Amino acid sequence: MKKISIFLVTATATLYFNNAYAQETPQDSAKVSSIDQIVITGNSNPKKKIESSTAISTFTAKEIQKQNPISAAALLQRVPGFAVETSGGEVGNNLFARGIPSAGAYEFVQVQEDGLPVFEDGALQFANADNFFRVDNTVSRLEALRGGSGSIYATNSPGGLINFITKEGTNDFKGTAKIETSTYGLMRTDLNLGGALVKDKLFFNVGGFYRSDDGIRKTGFKANNGGQIRMNLKYVFDKGYVKVYYKKLDDRNTFFLPIPLVQNGNKLKGFDGFDPNYGTYSYRAISQLNIPQAGGGFFSRNLEDGIHPKVDVLGAEFKYDLGNNFSVLNKTRYTNINMNYTGIFPAGGPKTASEFAKDMGMTNYQYSLVSNGAVVNPAYVQKLGFWAIDKKMDNFVNDLQFNYKFDKGNVTAGFYKSNWKSQQYWNWSNILTTATDRPELLNLVDPSLSPSAVGYSKTYNGVTDMTFLQRNTQTQGSLNDLYVNLDYNVTDALSLNGGIRYSHDYYKGSFANTTTANLDNSGLTTDGTHSFATTTADDNMSVLGNKFTYWNYEIDKVSFTLAANYKINRENAVYARFSNGFRSPNEEAYYNYFSNPNPDKPLKSVSTNQLEVGYKYYSRTFDVAVIPFYSSLKNLSFTDVFSDGRSENIFANTRNFGVEIEGYARLLNNVLEVAFNGTFQNPKYKNLEAGSLLEGNTVRRMPKIYFNIAPAVNITKSWRAYVSMNYYGKRFQDELNVQTLPSFTEFGAGMSYQLGKIRFAVDGTNIFNTIGITEGDPRAGSPTGDGIIMARPIMGAAARASITLDF
């Protein structure tokens, strides 16, 4: 409630601020009319939105500024057809397109910057695409395509394309500077500058941000700290242009995992000792890990490092008019990523002190605090995974296109080449803590035994399982794709589109074989006196061997799409599209299969068929798009990694019927604006391997209904206030449809005031402190239903205040 009060007081004060100095120029309150918008994503050439036979949502820089999203995932919640889980924090979130289920990440869509992937595969283990991208003032606009032609213009993207297009300089020097603070210790600065070094010839743009905050959930340390810089230089000549650019991202973010809650049907409440809106197991008192290794040396990790990617991107773009209606466009990019990933992953739910001791085979037990040795009697204890992953990744990609324009349309032919590599190392341990939102490390011993007796302790400085899992793996991809796309205007009103892509992709990798060992005869001691024979914490330590298993996998697949768009008049259009695409097996699927090969269950690509029809109406005062769709998937694999390090593949077919709605209304002479989007769908399992009992069940983690509505009032030419409502329907955590994830509604609100070129704004999120869970605990196996559950709720109420200067 304190956060809500701060927000309301701030907003009220802003509302009654003296506006005597307001300028006559109104702030940019009206959305850029969709009737005039040009889109490039999923199209061979730029075309008006109403003439594009795709389901595509667009957001300009001004629209993004007004929404002021707390993360890239929060912005994508405004796109129909995309079910987005935002509870992980700024990064590491999940997106599901049109009811296509997965283990998470961005598995069936591709996230792009300026038409090339942020990284070729956006769903590598612990490397979600949004780990490597941040929304700041260098973004010119966002184009989000669902289904449709995604599989023609990118790999592994049957669900769609998310294309963030960056700003370029113009003849007019322009800049934007922004400072922002919040109720959770945020200090952020954004800056963007662009202009001409040589008029009409040489242009530049440079910008970025730096941010530090404590996090909405209370970690006891800086939850987010870092920033990025992005710059480009573009030279324009008579027949084309050449552009070079560079991006540096060095950011550290805490990743939030499930916490304990109490569920009774559709009702949720906090677990005793745990604040559901602001609590987290990722806390400073358990942030340090330092343990000896069976192979020698020590392994140390600091939870405060969180998800810490260091990303360097260097790219170039070249376009040239070859004459006779021929042109060539080439885009190339090299990306290098060095990421340390540290997170706290619950290993099941809380247990009573006696229950946990019994599970450890103890009839006599004693708990004590690691920090000071004090004997304690906690009501509940929690086993937590302290997971450390290091990933070194690089990606070279080149997209070469030739385009020919003729009287009735154009044809584009291209060759796409991408080489990528991911080298990763895992080192996982389990720790024992109190089941509270400011957890403390616990030791557990058998007081009936002597401290020098074998098996006296079940822990080593709070660690129950020292390095129980290690992995050293490498995955490489080599993609060689040819594609052709044809646009043909039958009449001024009727246009046809067809595209085909041939993918000859090759994947290979290796992983180190492991053995187990302990430290009993290592000569090391647990406390300077007693040997490791006195504890069981080291009994099953993983040791990397010097032998490797090598594997390879080849894909030869064809994707295609056919569409027609009929423009009834300037404001109305209808279209229909059929598309066929695929997704190659993900990284964990390769590891799981080749480490335990099963000829009866060979690896297969996921194939997709999608049919969509749409109606679009765009005018100066009202926009609406209604798009019914159907999708079916074959060989869909659910590749989950459990808290004990095991993983599994379950294969299924799915089908989904749905409809997407998106619109924007300007009423009462632009005094009232209403933006809305929604998705209604019914995704079901078909032919699930696990058995006929699951036939017809609802696909896990997929809501049948979710929508967002955001009315705004332009009180004066300078004052603007808005409210947003985000509804997320009931879902099931599991294929069995046992654990219900109740529906929830999250409200936001804000206000802005334009004083000349300065914009003051206050934005509040989850202002009513709703407990809304986006996922249960997918690493815990089958759920149990009501009672104490593990789930990942959205963040509690928070408010941000910002000042932006345009010059």
From TrEMBL:
Membrane topology classification: Multi-pass membrane protein
Keywords: Cell outer membrane, Ion transport, Iron, Iron transport, Membrane, Receptor, Signal, TonB box, Transmembrane, Transmembrane beta strand, Transport
One MF term in the entry's GO annotations: siderophore uptake transmembrane transporter activity
Main location: membrane
Sequence ranges assigned to domain TonB-dependent receptor-like beta-barrel in this UniProt record: 274-763
Gene3D superfamilies per the UniProt record, alphabetical: TonB-dependent receptor, beta-barrel domain (2.40.170.20), TonB-dependent receptor, plug domain (2.170.130.10)
Signal peptide bounds: 1-22
PROSITE patterns: TONB_DEPENDENT_REC_3 (PS52016)
InterPro entries: Beta-barrel_TonB, Beta-barrel_TonB_sf, Plug_dom, Plug_dom_sf, TonB-dep_rcpt-like
Gene Ontology CC: cell outer membrane
Pfam families cross-referenced by the UniProt entry: Plug (PF07715), TonB_dep_Rec_b-barrel (PF00593)
Chain ranges of the TonB-dependent receptor plug domain: 49-160
Compartment(s) where it occurs, according to its Swiss-Prot or TrEMBL record: Cell outer membrane
PANTHER family per record: CATECHOLATE SIDEROPHORE RECEPTOR FIU (PTHR32552:SF89), FERRICHROME IRON RECEPTOR-RELATED (PTHR32552)
UniProt family annotation: Belongs to the TonB-dependent receptor family.
Entry protein name: TonB-dependent receptor
